[in-house]
Amino acid sequence: MKNAILILIIAVFFSATDTLAQNQSKPANSAKKGYVPLIISDEAKTSLGISSEIIALNNSAVAEAIQGNHQSAIASFRKVISRSPHLAQAHFNLGITLTYAKQMEEAVRVLKNLIKIKPDYALAHAALGEVLYKNGLLDESIYSFRQALKLDPNDVVIMVHLGASLFEVKNYEEALDLFEKALKLKPDFVSAVNNRGVVFQILGKHKQAIADFRRAIALDPNYSEARNNLGVSLNQTGKKKEAHQEFLEAVRLRPDWNYAIYNLAVSFIELGDRKSAREQLNALNKIDESLGAKVKELLWQKYVINAADFDGN
């Protein structure tokens, strides 16, 4: 069997991408979703010059958005903006909710318009960077995150997002620098710990990578990305049985996560457990046929002489 490429995960907040040798993407867990719509406090009413009715409408729309009622929230945010066109928070909220609703082109338009209204709004630049990142527009994403970081140099979330974008264009050294800066400001920032580990792994610094992934798990035992990544690093250093346990745990935490299922299937193949590998292949085919095809090929290479005789079952 040829060497399989295990998938390594760099975490951002509502998107995440990376691998050891190819780019993939997948959602991070809800605790790491990142930017959410903004609630406007009653105390802000005077400084913003808006009515209590507008504040209440915005805040009820925020609740709708967080609950996943995106279209209702979008309609309410548009109503707020029609009554208070210069209310930056409402434009921001609309852009973020459009993103969650997967209306990406409109989200970009709204956030770019917000930046015209308020060029020094760091959060708007950062949110635009996320949408561009999610759509694979990495150069534009990097530009937006750089603008955001200029406006708010100590924002660790922006640092991690910019670092993730730079990672995607293989600017590993600057990405590493940003993750380390974020950790100096917030040592327990689990996504920065995980992401630094990913860069260490890419750079062949396996000992440092494993230490970071273990630290991320200590900070958040349910952090499936770090479990998966620790499995990759352990596998790469020959500790295949220990790696296998981490892949099992990653799948337990996220049973429908295609990348963890793929890694677990590969691990079963490497350990010679054909039956369990087939079970993971069946699960994987239901959610990601392209990764399933890779597992099927690996199974064939190890166990089957005639490919025409192999149906993957």
Largest sheet: 2 strands, antiparallel
- In whole angstroms, the N-to-C terminal distance is 18 Å
> What is the H/E order?
EEHHHHHHHHHHHHHHHH
Strand content: under 5%
Count up the helices. 16
How much helix, percentage-wise, in residues? 55-70%
Kindly state the mean pLDDT as a whole number? Answer: 87
Low-confidence stretches: 13-33
> What spatial order of strands do you see in the largest sheet?
1-2
| C-alpha geometry | elongated
Total beta strand runs? 2
Radius of gyration: 22 Å
Q: Class by helix and strand content?
A: mainly alpha
Structure in words:
- The chain has 313 residues and is an all-alpha fold.
- The two termini are 18 Å apart.
- About 7% of the residues have low confidence.
- A two-stranded antiparallel ribbon has the order 1-2.
- The longest helix has 15 residues.
- 47% of the residues are buried.
- Helix content is 67%, strand content 1%.
Topology:
Elements: E1 16-17, E2 25-26, H1 44-48, H2 52-66, H3 70-83, H4 88-100, H5 104-117, H6 122-134, H7 138-151, H8 156-168, H9 172-185, H10 190-202, H11 206-219, H12 224-236, H13 240-253, H14 258-270, H15 274-285, H16 289-303
Antiparallel strand pairs: 1-2
Structural descriptors:
313 residues; mainly alpha; 16 helices; 2 strands; elongated
Concise summary:
It contains 16 helices and two strands. The chain is mainly α and 313 residues long. Strand 1 and strand 2 (25-26) form a beta hairpin.
